[in-house]
Amino acid sequence: MKPIQAGLLGIGTVGSGVFHVLQRNQEEIRRRAGRGIEITMVADLDTARAQAVVGEGVQVVNDARAVIANPDIDIVIELIGGYRIARDLVMEAIAAGKHVVTANKALLAVHGTEIFEAAHRRGVMVNFEAAVAGGIPIIKALREGLTANSIEWIAGIINGTTNFILSEMRDKGLDFDVALKDAQRLGYAEADPTFDIEGVDAAHKATIMSAIAFGIPVQFDKAYVEGITKLGAQDIRYAEQLGYRIKLLGITKRSFDPATGALKGIELRVHPSLVPARRLIANVEGAMNAVMVQGDAVGTTLYYGKGAGSEPTASAVIADLVDITRLHTADAAHRVPHLAFQPDQMSDAPVLPMSEVVTSYYLRLRVADQAGVLAKVTGLLAAAGISIDAMLQRPAGAGAETDGERGVPQTDLIILTHTVREGTMNEVLAQMQGLPTVLAPIVRIRKEELA
Ligand SMILES: NC(=O)c1ccc[n+]([C@@H]2O[C@H](COP(=O)([O-])OP(=O)(O)OC[C@H]3O[C@@H](n4cnc5c(N)ncnc54)[C@H](O)[C@@H]3O)[C@@H](O)[C@H]2O)c1
Ligand SMILES: N[C@@H](CCO)C(=O)O
Ligand code: NA
């Protein structure tokens, strides 16, 4: 049989990896797919660079629409990125009856509903393994391997750039900015790295996983998003002293009413989290990703590997090409549904507001070092029914022995709490912040036991 022909839109970090791996392993891939897979046309704005990557045998154009219009091409691979042009091109490729492979989590988290509906109507596949945790086959695990389970929660380190930055800061004492530059140089960061450091990229990926795990539409606009830019080095240190590591986690979870047992909705959130240092996931370092999935039948499973970079991401893109090649002639009923659940079987369970999330907390308060302060702080927690798990008091550090303006001696109080509703915690934090003996904005980091 003739090889299936694919057209590539965008040949940067990931696109060049796809081209090279497909070429290097073409014989094995052909034996697995049952048919050869060839990239016969490439579009990139920088045609000279693109031509240098693919050599003379492959047609290079600067207009992505020329690839979509080519009748010999059955699969369009979108590796441009971003929401705007990529959305139009993917929709046009679907309308033209092409299957699509994309690594673009931003696109799917925001426009996924529209894209999957269009693909379903047109009878084509949109595959996106590379969009979540790069080379780790997590989409396949969730959609196929774990299909027997009622998924209870997913928690993952799903942004390589921020995990790399946190590791470099902790291990080598590097400054945030230096570590970020290194992550950009290594090809981990998004075109706009604020997406990485502000938690947006992780939230895109968590949004996609929430849809697949719980059969809800992709709803990025409902996600709670907090990045690592406000994390202080001293919090990383204090967390260690208490037996925890701080990781940027993407979390999605079914939440039940404790009184009735009824499903309240779905938690969907990204924020720095304290994780017990003894957990495997707490020891995932550098640009590596790891995703924990808790299913009712299988229990806890963990997926670990490279979540970013040229060839690791290419590995996932090519797996999608192979799946499409195998299923090309099968009708929609025989394919794996885009979001794991059949399109007419989606749930309308709401994504919960952050105030309804129940979790535990790390609090750091800069307080006046005087009698009765601790009692006031813990009194507010007690009045709200919030129980304390552990506590530290530490000197405020060199140069911070006294409060600048008022000259009051000061100290740091670090408190770990047991679980409480976030809305309740917010009220207590507002009261604490109002105490005259609390001298600086209170630091609050959520804590996940992941058990
Ligand atoms: N880099 C990674 O590790 C990684 C991992 C997983 C997913 N992704 C995703 O993969 C996608 C590509 O990322 P990348 O790192 O390869 O980006 P990149 O910037 O290295 O490559 C994008 C390429 O698209 C080209 N391009 C831009 N506009 C174009 C247009 N209108 N028509 C044709 N070509 C155009 C650029 O010239 C560039 O060569 C993004 O959606 C990204 O989020 C990247
Ligand atoms: N910028 C992303 C690339 C992989 O999606 C990361 O750092 O994880
Ligand atoms: Na993946």
Q: What do the pLDDT scores average to? A: 95
Percent of residues in helical segments?
25-40%
| CATH architecture annotation of the largest domain | 3-Layer(aba) Sandwich
Q: How many discrete structural domains?
A: 3
Shape: elongated
The CATH topology of the largest domain comes to Rossmann fold
**Mind telling me the C-alpha Rg?**
24 Å
What's the CATH H-level homologous superfamily of the largest domain?
NAD(P)-binding Rossmann-like Domain
Number of helices: 15
Oligomer: single chain
Bound small molecules, deduplicated? nicotinamide-adenine-dinucleotide, L-homoserine, sodium ion
The CATH class of the largest domain is: Alpha Beta
Alpha carbon gap, first and last residue:
50 Å
Q: Which structural class should the secondary elements be placed in?
A: alpha/beta
Can you give a write-up of this model?
By secondary structure, the protein is an alpha/beta fold. It folds into three domains: 4-137 and 310-345, NAD(P)-binding Rossmann-like Domain (Rossmann fold); 139-306, 2-Layer Sandwich (Dihydrodipicolinate Reductase, domain 2); 359-447, Alpha-Beta Plaits. Helix content is 36%, strand content 25%. It is built from 15 helices and 17 strands. The chain has helices spanning 13-24, 26-33, 47-54, 64-69, 84-95, 105-122, 138-145, 160-172, 176-185, 194-197, 200-214, 233-241, 310-327, 373-383, 422-433; strands spanning 4-9, 37-43, 59-61, 75-78, 99-102, 126-127, 151-157, 224-225, 244-256, 263-276, 288-295, 299-306, 358-368, 388-395, 410-417, 420-421, 443-447. Strands 7, 8, 9, 10, 11, 12, 13, 14, 15, 16 and 17 form an eleven-stranded mixed sheet that branches. Strands 3-2-1-4-5-6 form a six-stranded parallel sheet, sandwiched between helices. The radius of gyration is 24 Å and the shape is elongated. The mean pLDDT is 95. Bound molecules: nicotinamide-adenine-dinucleotide (NAD), L-homoserine and sodium ion (NA). L-homoserine binds at residues 134, 159-161, 188-190, 196, 201, 307-308. Sodium ion (NA) binds next to helix 7.
